[in-house]
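To the team - N-hydroxy-L-asparagine complex, inputs and output below.
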Amino acid sequence: MFNRRKFLRISAVSASITALSKYSTVKAADLIAPGNLPIVISTWDFGIAANKEAWKTLASGGRALDAVEAGVKIPEADMNNHTVGRAGYPDRDGHVTLDACIMDEFGNCGSVAAMENIAHPITVARLVMEKTPHVMLVGDGATQFAVEQGIKKEKLLTPESEEAWKKWLVKAEYSPKINIENEQRRPGSKYNHDTIGMLAIDVKGNISGACTTSGMAFKLHGRVGDSPIIGAGLYVDNEVGGATSTGVGEEVIRNVGSFLVVELMRQGYSPEDACKEAVNRIIKKKPVAAKNLQVGFLAINKKGEYGAYAIQEGFSFAVCDSKKQDLLIPGKSFYKESK
Ligand code: SD4
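Output:
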């Protein structure tokens, strides 16, 4: 039966895809049909490369959990990426402190927060999940655990990040910019963006997710955002779907954002509508502040239908399945829609 709502949604997505054609020459006819499993989706343009890595696992019949870990390790290792992993911008005292979490199809989860000197926090989060009775390790304890697990300590502050931090220190003003954590971002860099949150469904239909970040650049030492908090930066329920977030983590934590999105999908909301409702709740509580902050949610349901919604325009997400590995789709947003 012809489904007008679905048609309109697909038309809107295909128009948006044309606008982002530098990443993909996909036409409306080639559009990925939601429900084409396996599938992996992730936040921002750097999600394209991360998805491709995750896809190797999914395409060979592997587990979604392995896929998301391998996928997000790509931006974690990227020296041009100043918002995730190695080369992330430091806090205001010059420490690079990393946050990450991971969740599997059984509801198992692991997390590290404010961890220093370890380049792949997602791997440590997975080790917390699999090798300890705990969910979360923080700070020195997380680093100590990583070392005990055989992971090498390394210096994460690069000369470039140190230079950016020293420039920031001149005025030392903390005001996160919408879609750009880093005021001193490199001109011309395509990696201006923030946290990577990734959700995958494997051939068995099982869902896993991962989220990893260096957090807000020049944050207070010890500050932890939403990204390593299960239910805030990431949540997976294998019966329903998964969600992840990016943007100002404090607002996501206050609203337990990703858990909310998954629970809304359980009630029958589409992934996009669930993300939109979670965004609307943030705006409703802080209508004035919301004008100057960004939060974006990305979600997938059990059928592989996906969607996103953000407070501000500019949020994008990457999608990869058997038909197309490099799609970048702009998420809809409250302010773009109401302008
Ligand atoms: C945080 N949510 O630490 C992360 C950072 C981020 O866009 O995604 N910024 O609050």
